[in-house]
């Protein structure tokens, strides 16, 4: 057993997937035993009963810049140590010998006889992320992977020599050759880790963030609005927002929306500070560039664009009357996509609470707007449409009537909530 399964077992974490490496065998030998070949680029097989992955020991050599090609050598003469040497981090290059399970269905690991030629156990004990060999430089995706592991194991530090190596890779242009799909894949995984900010800390420190997401890099050094601890700049605020999204167990689309909601502040002209006038529309434009460049999935892109455009209005929504509330709901497409509107509100809560002194503060806008949507949804649109059609109206006229009915319903709701607040007993 190799890789993350061994690492997580040693860390006392649940082991999700078991990966095995097979030494001294050929593909024909495995297929003869009933193993199913599934690897397109590498000799990987599925066990006939357990369906766990078994890969032939192999070595790899990069044949093109970035992540565009590797020469793979898998043969019976490849040793376990050679296979472990091609791995990214020492904590992922520990092997536990396999022994047959008593029922004969598969194998189990013997953790009493670990094979650890590169000091992975030491680095687990010392909480260090360290590259295995200089072969790390052949695959720039490993910079992103290491940053992702930093977000997962947030009490680990990066070995100084590994950070130096990553800086050299960035300076030599290796990161610029990465394909968009791999960048997005690793960023998405990192956003879903326990402390997403750690991923961006590592990418900034090695210089990769400037190449991968310059729109995010520009946020550092931009002061916040005066009422929000201006000594903590916008880049730091963004990291707090991302960590709040993890704390609130938000989905990937919500976390990506948190990442992109303030991008426009990085291009704010000096004369528009400190209130970042017009940053919402600039954020939307920059988000479209980022999403196109990284080929971000549609659900993430659409949610992020709405949050970037409307988060300021949602924060100020307590000041809105019924008509303004209906227009806000319509711009967010809340009537057609109420579940997505809930995600929009969650992203806005992450933004509001991702500030010094606000982490444990309530965000009443989220509940109030959810209730406002519910009140507006009480309007029976089908009945209005039927009545309008009977009167010879169609198209935009029907839409206007539905809009007016929703405003009326929300006015009644706001009047009712105001009355309840006035008659409530003192706290």
Overview of this protein structure:
This protein has 427 residues and is an alpha/beta fold. Among the domains are: 4-119, Beta Polymerase, domain 2; 381-423, no CATH class. The protein is 51% helix and 8% strand. The chain is built from 19 helices and ten strands. The protein has helices spanning 4-10, 27-32, 80-85, 120-126, 141-152, 160-171, 180-191, 196-206, 208-212, 214-217, 234-247, 252-260, 279-294, 298-315, 322-331, 338-353, 364-377, 381-390, 396-423, and strands spanning 19-22, 36-37, 44-46, 53-56, 58-62, 70-74, 98-100, 107-109, 128-129, 157-158. The strands form four sheets. The chain has a four-stranded mixed beta sheet. A two-stranded antiparallel ribbon has the order 5-6. Strand 5 and strand 6 form a beta hairpin.
Task: Give me the secondary-structure topology.
Elements: H1 4-10, E1 19-22, H2 27-32, E2 36-37, E3 44-46, E4 53-56, E5 58-62, E6 70-74, H3 80-85, E7 98-100, E8 107-109, H4 120-126, E9 128-129, H5 141-152, E10 157-158, H6 160-171, H7 180-191, H8 196-206, H9 208-212, H10 214-217, H11 234-247, H12 252-260, H13 279-294, H14 298-315, H15 322-331, H16 338-353, H17 364-377, H18 381-390, H19 396-423
Parallel strand pairs: 1-4, 9-10
Antiparallel strand pairs: 2-3, 3-4, 5-6, 7-8
């Amino acid at each position: 057993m190799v890789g993350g399964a061994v690492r997580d077992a040693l860390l006392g974490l649940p082991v999700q997937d078991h990966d095995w490496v097979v030494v001294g065998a050929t593909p024909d030998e495995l297929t003869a035993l009933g193993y199913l070949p599934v690897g397109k680029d590498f000799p990987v097989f599925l066990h006939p009963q357990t369906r766990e992955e078994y890969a032939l020991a192999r070595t790899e050599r990069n044949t093109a810049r970035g992540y565009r090609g590797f020469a793979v050598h898998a043969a019976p003469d490849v040793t376990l140590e050679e296979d472990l040497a091609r791995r990214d981090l020492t904590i992922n290059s520990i092997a536990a010998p396999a022994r047959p399970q008593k029922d004969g269905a598969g194998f189990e690991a013997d953790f009493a006889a670990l094979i650890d030629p590169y000091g992975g156990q030491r680095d687990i004990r010392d909480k260090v992320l360290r590259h295995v060999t200089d072969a790390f430089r052949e695959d720039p995706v490993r910079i992103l992977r290491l940053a992702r592991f930093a977000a997962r194991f947030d009490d680990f530090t990066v070995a100084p020599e590994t950070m130096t190596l990553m800086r050299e890779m960035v300076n030599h242009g290796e990161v610029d050759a990465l394909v968009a799909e791999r960048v997005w894949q690793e960023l998405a995984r990192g956003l879903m880790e326990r402390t997403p900010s750690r991923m961006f800390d590592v990418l900034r420190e090695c210089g990769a963030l400037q190449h991968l997401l310059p729109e995010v890099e520009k946020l550092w050094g931009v002061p916040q609005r005066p009422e929000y601890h201006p000594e903590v700049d916008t880049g730091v605020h963004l990291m707090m927002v991302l960590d709040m999204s993890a704390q609130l167990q938000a989905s990937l689309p919500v976390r990506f929306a948190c990442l992109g909601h303030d991008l426009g502040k990085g291009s704010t002209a000096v004369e528009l500070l400190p209130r970042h006038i017009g940053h919402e529309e600039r954020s939307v434009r920059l988000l479209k560039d980022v999403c196109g460049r990284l080929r971000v999935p549609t659900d993430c892109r659409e949610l992020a664009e709405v949050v970037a455009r409307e988060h300021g209005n949602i924060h100020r929504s307590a000041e809105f009357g019924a008509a303004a509330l209906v227009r806000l709901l319509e711009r967010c497409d809340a009537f057609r996509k109420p579940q997505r509107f809930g995600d929009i509100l969650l992203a806005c809560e992450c933004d509001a609470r991702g500030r010094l002194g606000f982490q444990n503060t309530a965000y009443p806008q989220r509940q109030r707007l959810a209730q406002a949507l519910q009140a507006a949804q009480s309007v029976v649109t089908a009945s209005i449409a039927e009545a309008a059609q009977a009167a010879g109206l169609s198209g935009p006229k029907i839409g206007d009537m539905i809009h007016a009915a929703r405003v009326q319903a929300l006015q009644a709701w706001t009047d009712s909530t105001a009355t309840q607040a006035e008659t409530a007993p003192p706290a």
